[in-house]
Specification:
Elements (H helix, E strand, L loop, with lengths): L1 H24 L27 H7 L1 H28 L2 H15 L3 H10 L5 H24 L2 H12 L4 H8 L5 H24 L11 H7 L9 H31 L1
Length: 261
């Protein structure tokens, strides 16, 4: 009971702030000197641009959460079918898919982001698909491994003997048994995607430097961690709550699903 309540609470706080915060934040503009300490006028102090830190935090959740969700959804929309094809279409398809993705795996993620930044390719329209592609090798391997598990293979062989086509077996039967592995992987991959997006913003590849996005705010105000810590620690705590809450909720839902099954 405590774990369930804690998980939903941790997840709800950043999500509610991301959705409702921009509507109550007001204009995000300079109101004083940079890095003022918290006071009556500015409960969290001010950031590097002299903006009220509380206003920035309220306005900055939707961009990072929206980009993270978009990148994850795109990655799984591509990675899950690829994993099912690799597992169900024979050795040639398996080798083609997995060796092709090994090429993506050979390039370090940060190196890819640095090259994009150096060539001037930037913005959410570039960053989201790039981050999604960088996650494909790991996602495809998870799906392929789950689809090749002994329990699935026994049922697949029986359905094959009945004359069922491969696509109906893989996308009809096997896909229904991937919810657990995919949900577990997504919960942990959320942190990886957040890290990549924060790194991209640090390189100037993602959102503008004056964006109130939580990841941008953390990077831009890192020098004030000891003199004005609230402007760094509050958005960092919200991102951490998002990651931890997602994993706790995922674990709880999977445990309830196993009990029902």
């Amino acid at each position: 009971m405590v774990k369930r309540t804690l998980g939903w609470s941790l997840l709800a706080v950043p999500l509610v702030l991301a959705m409702a915060g921009p509507m109550i934040a007001g204009p995000v503009e300079s109101v004083g000197a940079p890095w003022q300490v918290p006071g009556a006028a500015h409960p969290l102090g001010t950031d590097v641009l002299g903006r009220d830190a509380l206003t920035v935090v309220l306005a900055g959740g939707f961009p990072v959460i929206g980009m993270t969700a978009a990148a994850l959804v795109l990655a799984y929309l591509i990675g899950v079918p690829l994993g099912l094809v690799a597992a169900g279409r024979g050795r040639l398809a398996d080798e083609t898919v997995m060796r092709s993705l090994d090429l993506v795996l050979a390039f370090p993620s940060l190196l890819v982001l640095m090259v994009l930044a150096a060539t001037g390719h930037r913005g959410p329209g570039v960053l989201i698909p790039v981050v999604a592609v960088l996650q494909l090798p790991a996602i495809t391997r998870v799906v392929r491994a789950a689809a090749l598990a002994p329990g699935c293979r026994t049922a697949v062989e029986a359905l094959t003997l009945q004359g069922q086509p491969w696509w109906r077996i893989q996308f009809g039967y096997v896909a229904r048994h991937l919810a657990g592995p995919v949900a577990t992987d997504a919960g942990t991959r959320l942190g990886v995607v957040l890290y990549l997006l924060a790194s991209a913003n640090f390189l100037g590849l993602g959102l503008p430097a004056d964006s109130p996005d939580w990841a941008v705010v953390i990077e831009r105000n890192s020098e004030a961690l000891y003199t004005s810590p609230a402007v760094v620690l509050v958005p960092a705590a919200l991102l951490m709550a998002l990651c931890v809450g997602t994993n706790l909720v995922t674990d709880r839902l999977l445990a309830a699903r196993r009990v029902i099954a």
